[in-house]
From TrEMBL:
InterPro entries (alphabetical): TM_pro_TauE-like, TSUP
Species of the source: Tranquillimonas alkanivorans
Keywords: Cell membrane, Membrane, Transmembrane, Transmembrane helix, Transport
Lineage of origin: Bacteria, Pseudomonadati, Pseudomonadota, Alphaproteobacteria, Rhodobacterales
Gene Ontology CC annotation, any one: plasma membrane
Subcellular location: Cell membrane
Membrane topology: Multi-pass membrane protein
Entry superkingdom: Bacteria
PANTHER family reported for this sequence: MEMBRANE TRANSPORTER PROTEIN YFCA-RELATED, TRANSMEMBRANE PROTEIN YFCA
Protein's name in the database: Probable membrane transporter protein
Length: 249
């Protein structure tokens, strides 16, 4: 009952945070580990529970998704699938002890990216340069996709930054493609994880249901929140605390 309560509360909060400002992984991933799920399995399970939200967001933005720059939409998706598979495969061959050592650094990187997100995007949009070449664009998307297949935290900000760097200018289109690629990467990763038996299904079921409910409630209340920067500060604080805990433990 205690585990059920923790997963339910965590899922509700994570779903609401993802709907309003992002950052739900900072709650779901540590909660799973705290309940005794091994780190690699916790990472895989947290990715699974975030997947319904990604798919829903991608559907909501379906009319805004469009390619800019030198790569067609189909090419971008194919590169992302390849990167997601590579990242998921990399996770599968990572020894459990090694992943435990990597986790604090991943959390630190994700927290810093989330904290610097608005600044990164404003700088990228202010550059105003032309589109990057197809090879550079594909390499940038592939790199971020490998990261997304390996670890989910901070993926959205990384995708938006890369889109800006390779020539995207339409923010709605960028958000739409970010949601689409996040959904694609989660599907690819989760399929790989599930095939390898890395999903804690009992925990995943409770967390996924709670996250979906939290996301619906969060989305319905999002327009009433006037100062989302306070939410961002709170999420960064949670990420910072979790990072310190993982470094110490």
């Amino acid at each position: 009952m205690f585990s059920l309560l923790v997963l339910t509360i965590t899922g509700l909060l994570a779903g609401a945070l993802n709907a309003v400002a992002g950052g739900g992984t900072f709650l779901s991933f540590p909660a799973l580990i705290w309940l005794g799920v091994p780190p690699i399995m916790a990472n895989a399970t947290a990715t699974l529970t975030a997947m319904p939200g990604y798919i829903g967001s991608a559907w909501a933005y379906r009319h805004d998704v469009a390619a800019e720059g030198t790569l067609r939409l189909g090419a971008i998706i194919l590169v992302s699938v390849a990167g997601g598979l590579a990242g998921a495969a990399l996770l599968l061959i990572t020894p459990g002890d090694a992943f435990v050592g990597i986790v604090p650094w991943l959390l630190l990187a994700a927290t810093c990216l989330f904290a610097a997100g608005p600044r990164i995007l404003s700088v990228v949009r202010a550059r105003g340069r032309g589109a990057a070449g197809p090879l550079l664009s594909a390499t940038a998307i592939l790199t971020v996709s490998i990261y997304g297949g390996y670890f989910n935290g901070g993926l959205g900000i990384m995708l938006l930054a890369v889109f800006g760097l390779i020539g995207f200018t339409n923010l709605h289109g960028m958000n739409g493609l970010k949601n689409l690629l996040s959904a694609v990467l989660s599907i690819v990763s989760v399929t790989t994880y599930a095939t390898a038996g890395l999903i804690a299904w009992e925990s995943a079921l409770v967390l996924a249901i709670a996250t979906t409910i939290g996301g619906y409630v969060g989305a319905s209340q999002a327009r009433r929140i006037q100062r989302t920067e306070l939410l961002r500060i709170g999420i960064v604080a949670v990420g910072a605390v979790m990072t310190v805990v993982f470094f110490v433990v």
